[in-house]
Amino acid sequence: MKALKFIAVALITTLLVSCGVTRTVPITGRKQTIMVSDEQVLSLSSQEYANYMKTAKLSTNRTNTAMVKRVGQRLASAVEAYLKANGLASDVKQYSWEFNLVQDKSANAFCMPGGKIVVYEGLLPYTRNEASLAIVLGHEIAHAVARHSAEQMSKELRNSYGVQILGKVLNASGVDTGVSQLAQIVAQKGLQFRSLKYSRDHETEADRMGLIFAAMAGYDPNVAISFWERMSQGNNNTNDMFSDHPSDAKRIAAIKKDMPEALTYYKKSK
Fold first, then answer.
1. CA dist list (Å): 6 to 3, 30, 76
2. CA-CA 20 to 30 A from 251: which of 161, 218, 257, 260?
């Protein structure tokens, strides 16, 4: 019996290792292990985005809508140019950029894997200008480029296997159950992209990358400080102990620390 359990554990461990792919996050150089394929993530993301857009109400403000699309496309072009110049041209193929402004009073925005980005109208009173909007969109694009959604899904897979490996997996058919569970978890997490909470480390990484992406696109990254100061006045995120986002004070401090790096990418647009 012990031998059988050992073999089952070995099989599941082999499955986990074989499913995992080690990647390097652009800009930061951080190593990450992804256990779900781009095809899986993009397929689920496209399905959820389509469902969301069926119920969302697009903004009727043509000026603001045009601004969101203009800033977004400018950022996307800069990011794609960077990826191509750094041997990551194959990554560009997975992006099909789309930028929409919707009627929602929340000060928020989100990006689906694959580059589908939605900005809520309630965010614009805080951005106030195109450069600050670029900071937000750069942050959202960073989540996609760094594959944070896939990384979070991979974490859920590992946690699930860790909890159940000596239960259902060992008492059932081993690898077959594991494969079935993987598919179920991928599907389950895929339906939560809009509300997926990234870790504080992911948020900090997206802040840094977004700052640099904005600079690459010709937007002054210095505006990020005043933007986040305005955001801090509109919420109570003063303590990060129970939050997936850094506290406002820590976020602003980190941005100030990353500013010299971002400025090396900044060339004022004419």
1. 5, 33, 49
2. 218
What's the Cα-to-Cα distance from 70 to each of 83, 125, 167, 201, rounded to whole Å? Answer: 20, 18, 52, 29
Binned at pLDDT 50, 70 and 90, residue 240 comes out as very low
Report the distance separating Cα 131 and Cα 154, nearest Å.
Answer: 34
Tell me the residue ranges of DSSP E strands in the chain: 21-24, 31-34, 98-102, 109-112, 116-120
Contact 28, 151 (CB under 8 A): no
Please write the tens of the pLDDT for every residue from 119-152: 999 999 999 999 999 999 999 999 999 999 888 8
Which residues neighbour 169 within 8 Å (Cβ) at sequence distance 6 or greater?
8, 12, 161, 177, 178, 181
List the one residue out of 216, 217, 214, 218 whose CA is nearest residue 255.
Answer: 214
Beta bridge partners of 31: 24
Is residue 117 packed enough to be buried (19+ CB in 10 Å), middle (13-18) or exposed (0-12)? buried
pLDDT, tens only, 59-76 = 999 999 999 999 999 999
- The β-bridge relationship of strands 98-102 and 31-34 is unpaired
10-49 per-position pLDDT tens digit = 444 444 444 578 999 999 999 998 888 888 888 888 888 9
Prediction pTM value: 0.81
Catalytic residue ranges? 140
